[in-house]
Write a structure and sequence with these properties.
The complex is a heterodimer of chains A (about 375) and B (about 325). With about 375 residues, chain A is mainly α. Chain A folds into two domains: about 1-40 and about 165-355, no CATH class; about 50-135, 3-Layer(aba) Sandwich (abc type-2 transporter like fold). In chain A, about 65% of the residues lie in helices and about 5% in strands. In chain A, strands 2-1-3-4 form a four-stranded mixed β-sheet, sandwiched between helices. In chain B, helix 3 (about 95-105) packs parallel to helix 5 (about 140-150) and helix 4 packs antiparallel against helix 5 (about 140-150). Classes of the chains: A mainly alpha (about 375), B alpha/beta (about 325).
Chain lengths: ~375, ~325
């Protein structure tokens, strides 16, 4: 039994080592995603093009505009003559934020029942709306007790990531996204490829049992998954100073659980797909909701209820919860029982489905 | 030697949806011989072989292979079975040695036995010089020898070969058949499917399949002797005219052209068939030389399929 599993594993590793493209992807996908998310994709919005219509033309209004610009979120272009021009420039996509300061700005500031100025925002860009809330909270510059709010109305404090760096949130979650992608695609493809090329037809007529074949095939990928975890953590620490606050052993244990879950999901896909192309399509069918709904990109609590239910079925959701808990909050895996158990449940159900569907026969 | 048949199938049937690929086939395949399945593509050869080795479940009927009920006892039988698929099913990106090593391990051969058997089959099938070459870079003949080597590593009692020579040149085919006879001498039972007449003629016994049904069975010699038709060959410079003169005659069952000759199957009850054909051609003023000839397997096939089928495969160059 062990002999046959070992035979399959040795064969699989040999094939992997010779398949330069796949081998490159094992290292390439994590590296590319790390650099992409770490450097290029930044959820901190900065330097939005903006324009101002200052009808008040007072010192206070100029100071207010300067304070907005100092936030770094907006960068003011040439001022506009009026509200209409502001809207035209926004329509043409020249600017995405407009500030309208009415002539009676100073009076409005004192009279707290009326809004002092208007912020016009391009709602077609998803991130800008959030920015607007931030801008609206910018306090008026202090002016010797006469008017203006000296302290910000709202104090914002961010736990666990005081500098609010995207990389710190993204990199740990990337472990899951990368594993999800590579584990699922590679295993599904590895099994379907053998069916496509007729290898399976030959293997079925030998004494090897299906679970021996599957175990032997999946073992190398467990190793690959752990290598990827290490790679992401190392690059995250070297390039983006992402700390690991919890125990490494806990993190690897969680990763192992997640790898097992995604490998099994890959197996289920392989029993559904007839060709490698179908396997890729099915894998992406799972990938997209995983990335969108797992809390990797958007806050989980902000999603509508049906989306949250759907997210419960995706292993990435639970792994993200685990990995953020361990890496950022330094929680031991024992304190994260709920997501861990859900992951185990997913693994068992997927395993049952894969076993039921994979039979040693062609029909 | 065991006198029991190696394979007994009764009423073997397999349907795929509405299509019946194999239709109530009865088989009794004796041990220690080469048994051939002859038929065109789509006649149910592969489906039958797949049912015999437990890859497919029969829709109806029973199969007993080496005394085991299939597919129920498929796992028990695996060790006594060697299977060569129609397509090359070993791994292109592994070397010959790695492929053999893998198959030997999967078959459960122990280390010493493994080394010995791999050495033996490499010598037997002339693979020693290519042991470290990847299978994907080899010629059709080499790959086929490798596949046979892999199928015989564990010395199976029964070898099932599904169109093993379809991608191979004539010389390699000849060598391949020599290897098969050697295996039979060592006591193996071989079941081989083919659509080549010359290969079918080498089998000890033959089953002719058409549209999923068994239409004739016996030794090639008996089949050719007992063909329910008389065979004449017509040599003529004007084959088209000869054909026109003969077609439509109820006693002529089939005509096929072979270069400048016509090959005709006639109703068996016609006395002096060659004379009758000559007479008919003379009446139509077609110059021709007519002689009665011995039936070929192709004639047997045409007769067995109710004189509706054209020749199976184009004549091979060997």
């Amino acid at each position: 039994m062990l002999e046959r599993i070992a035979a399959v594993t040795v064969k699989e590793v040999r094939q992997l080592a010779r398949d330069r493209v796949t081998f490159g992807l094992i290292v390439g996908i994590p590296l590319m995603q790390m650099l992409l998310f770490g450097y290029a994709i930044n959820f901190d919005v900065r330097n939005l093009r903006a324009a101002v219509v200052d009808e008040a033309r007072t010192r206070l209004s100029r100071e207010y505009v300067a304070a907005l610009e100092a936030s770094g979120v907006v960068e003011f272009d040439a001022p506009s003559a009026g509200v209409h021009e502001l809207q035209r420039r926004m329509n043409s996509g020249e600017i995405s934020v407009g500030v309208h300061i009415p002539p009676d700005f100073e009076r409005r500031v004192i009279d707290r029942s009326r809004t002092a100025a208007q912020l016009i925002v391009d709602g077609s860009e998803p991130m800008v709306d959030n920015v607007a809330r931030g801008l609206a909270a910018v306090p008026l510059p202090r002016r010797d007790g006469r008017y203006g709010t000296a302290t910000p109305v709202l104090e914002l404090r961010t736990e666990y990531n005081p500098e609010r760096r995207t990389a710190v949130q993204i990199v740990p979650a990337l472990i899951g996204v990368i594993l999800n992608m590579t584990m699922m695609i590679f295993t599904a493809a590895a099994v379907v490829r053998e069916r496509e090329r007729g290898n399976l037809e030959l293997l079925i007529t030998t004494p090897i049992r299906s679970w021996e074949l599957m175990t032997g095939k999946l073992l190398p990928y467990v190793g690959i998954g752990l290598v990827q975890v290490t790679l992401v953590l190392t690059v995250g620490s070297l390039l983006f100073d992402v700390p690991v606050n919890g125990r490494l052993a806990d993190l690897y244990l969680a990763a192992l659980l997640f790898i097992a879950a995604t490998l099994t999901l890959g197996l289920v896909i392989s029993t559904l797909a007839r060709t490698q192309f179908q396997a890729f399509q099915l894998a992406f069918f799972v990938m997209l909701p995983s990335i969108l709904l797992s809390g990797f990109m958007f806050p989980f609590d902000g999603m509508p209820k049906p989306a949250q239910w759907l997210a419960q079925v995706l292993p990435l959701t639970h792994f993200n919860e685990l990995v953020r808990g361990i890496v950022l909050r330094g929680a031991p895996i024992g304190d994260l029982g709920r997501p861990a158990l859900k992951l185990v449940a997913f693994l068992l159900v997927a395993l049952a489905i894969a076993t039921m569907r994979f039979r040693k026969r062609l029909d | 030697m065991n006198a029991e048949p190696a394979i007994v199938a009764t009423g073997l049937t397999r349907r795929f949806g509405k299509v019946t690929a194999v239709d109530h086939v009865d088989l009794s395949i004796p041990r220690a011989g080469i048994y051939g399945f002859l038929g065109p593509n789509g006649s149910g050869k592969s489906t039958t072989i797949r049912m015999l080795c437990g890859l497919l479940e029969p829709s109806e009927g029973t199969v007993e292979v080496l005394g085991h009920r299939m597919p129920r006892d498929a796992e028990v039988l695996r060790r006594q079975l060697g299977y060569m698929t129609q397509r090359f099913s070993l791994w292109d990106d592994l070397t010959v040695r790695e492929n053999l090593e893998f198959m030997a391990r999967v078959q459960g051969l122990h280390r010493a036995e493994r080394r010995q058997r791999i050495g033996e089959v490499a010598a037997e099938y002339d693979l020693e010089t290519v042991m470290d070459q990847r299978a994907g870079t080899m010629s059709g003949g080499q790959r086929q020898r490798l596949a046979l080597a892999a199928a015989t590593l564990h010395r199976p009692e029964l070898l099932l070969l599904d169109e093993p020579t379809s991608a191979v040149d004539p010389q390699s085919r000849r060598d391949f058949w020599e290897s098969l006879f050697q295996l039979v001498l060592e006591g193996a039972t071989i079941l081989v499917s083919t659509h080549y007449m010359d290969e079918a003629e080498r089998c000890h016994r033959l089953a002719i399949l058409a549209e999923g049904r068994l239409v004739a069975e016996g030794t090639p010699r008996d089949l050719m002797r007992d063909i329910p038709a008389a065979v004449v060959e017509i040599e003529t410079p004007d084959t088209a005219a000869a054909r026109a003169a003969l077609s439509g005659q109820p006693w002529i069952l089939s005509i096929a052209q072979l270069g400048t000759r016509l090959h005709a199957l006639l109703d068996r009850d016609v006395p002096d068939p060659a004379g009758r054909v000559s007479e008919r051609l003379a009446k139509a003023a077609v110059a021709a030389e007519v002689k009665a000839v011995v039936a070929s397997l192709e004639d047997v096939f045409v007769a067995a399929t109710g004189f509706r089928h054209s020749p199976l495969a184009p004549p091979q160059g060997n």
